[in-house]
Write a structure and sequence with these properties.
By secondary structure, this protein is α/β, with parallel strands linked by helices. Helix content is 37%, strand content 21%.
Length: 466
């Protein structure tokens, strides 16, 4: 399949305040609500049809930028500014190009702007990532094909211009091999403020869904984290759960502290089964020091991946050179980066005689609707077996979205949602998310938000605190 040249028109950005049903604490921040951003764009195929595309992402505070001198509100303002600047850049009149060609142009302009404004690379990439998803949605609809079919034939024009370490043949092989899984297991997040036993705790979640994969947030305190891991392992093993687990430090550890934590874990006979079932350690160290030194071999042997440090197209190969074995896929960091990192994993594993490299599917509280659908569809297409899903755990159903909007999504995706407790919710009871309805023409968008229920994107920091 050739990659058609396209132009973009009528790009619009919106937002909606989304209160949380319970606090979500990760790292040093506790979030009780956040703004969700939405994008709509018209994609015109050169000499051919046009169609509109859409996307959505939450704007959580203090994840894209954790600098101590930046307030939570300021970090959200940066995400709004990122999206507004990306909309402006993408709206400029320019010659038709492939979808990835447009991305590369937008990415370069966005990076230069962010550097001049002291906005982090992750925050800068947020706006471009939202537009890229909407463009893929519109292009897929215009061509009347699933986004996977477009990727299989490289109709987006993905190439090596941003990843000179890759050969075009590796990209072509990775894209041609994409084959969506019919379902993907949920990896349930255990936040730092989530209780283990008792009402509305992890035990309640286990009663409600057949969960087998878990992601446990770490606090950075070895003694406290050891006790918490032991309590979670005891609960899972008392129930006879055949579980797998990842742990996420969200940059809270220093190397000596992480060694101290695993010295406690290794010395605890009650955690023997837990150690065997630990899949990976996610982003233990501050992103600003991640690339300063190689991983201690005792830590590297447990499979460590980067997430917040994945702020540039060369981040993953730099991390691999220091002993890291993987990188996260998150739609908010960019679908093209995830695809190119998948190609890197395939190449690295073809050359490796030791432990395998991996791509891990992570969440940033993706909400029901476009956000969770597009992220789930991407990781299912990548062939991953489980994905962190936490948005449905912290927001009640579709949250403040109109009832008619939720009804539109369940009508279009009856395998992904279910009515429970009077609300339309993600269908999580089986511990797996069905994906079949996500691969119709478009990018996992059988329904759209009710656009009139949204507010235009604001650059103001006023309103509900995020």
């Amino acid at each position: 399949m050739s990659a058609p040249r396209i132009t973009l028109h009528d790009i619009e950005a919106f937002e909606r305040w989304t209160p949380f049903a319970r606090p979500f604490r990760f790292g040093a921040v506790t979030v009780e609500g956040a703004w969700q951003a939405f994008v709509r764009v018209v994609v015109q195929v050169e000499g051919g049809p046009r169609a509109s595309g859409a996307s959505a992402e939450l704007m959580p505070p203090k994840w894209f930028d954790k600098r101590a001198d930046r307030s939570a509100a300021a970090t959200v303002a940066d995400l709004r500014a990122s999206l507004a600047h990306a909309v402006g850049t993408a709206s400029e009149t320019r010659a038709p190009d492939t979808a990835f060609g447009l991305h590369a142009s937008h990415h370069g302009a966005q990076s230069a702007w962010a550097h001049a404004c002291d906005i982090t690379a992750l925050s800068a990439g947020f706006g471009v990532a939202l537009i890229d998803k909407a463009v893929l949605d519109g292009l897929s609809k215009a061509l009347g094909a699933s986004f996977v079919a477009l990727l299989n034939g490289n109709a987006v024009g993905l190439d090596t211009r941003l990843t000179p370490d890759l050969e075009q043949a590796a990209i072509r092989q990775m894209l041609a091999g994409l084959a969506p899984r019919a379902s993907i297991a949920i990896r349930h997040t255990v936040g730092l403020d989530d209780v283990v036993a008792g009402e509305d705790g992890l035990a309640t979640e286990l009663d409600a869904a057949d969960l087998r994969f878990f992601k446990i947030k770490l606090s950075g305190d070895p003694a406290a984290d050891h006790l918490r891991l032991a309590a979670i392992a005891r609960l899972l093993e008392d129930r006879g759960t055949d579980y797998r687990v990842t742990v996420d430090a969200n940059e809270q550890y220093v190397p000596a502290g992480l060694l101290a934590l695993f010295a406690l874990v290794d010395a605890d006979p009650a955690l023997a089964r837990f150690r065997q079932r630990l899949v990976l350690i996610e982003q233990p160290f501050d992103r600003r020091v991640t690339f300063e030194t190689a991983l201690d071999e005792r830590i590297a042997a447990r499979t460590v991946i980067i997430d917040e440090a994945d702020d540039a197209y060369d981040a993953f190969p730099r991390a691999m050179a220091l002993g890291y074995r993987g990188v996260s896929s998150k739609s908010c960091k960019g679908l093209y980066k995830a695809l190119l990192n998948a190609a890197r994993v395939a190449v690295a594993n073809s050359r490796s005689e030791g432990p395998l490299f991996l791509l891990s599917a992570e969440d940033l509280t993706c909400q029901p609707g476009l956000a969770v659908q597009q992220d789930t569809a991407l990781v299912a297409a990548l062939g991953l077996t489980h994905v962190e899903r936490n948005g449905h755990h912290y927001v009640d159903g579709f949250g403040p979205a109109p009832e008619a909007e939720a009804a539109g999504f369940i009508a279009a995706h009856p395998d992904l949602y279910a009515r429970r407790g009077g609300l339309i919710r993600l269908a999580t009871a089986r511990g797996r998310l069905a994906t079949a309805s996500l691969f119709a023409p478009g990018f996992a968008s059988g329904a759209e938000p009710i656009w009139t229920s949204l507010s235009p994107l604001s650059l103001s920091t006023e309103g509900p605190s995020a």
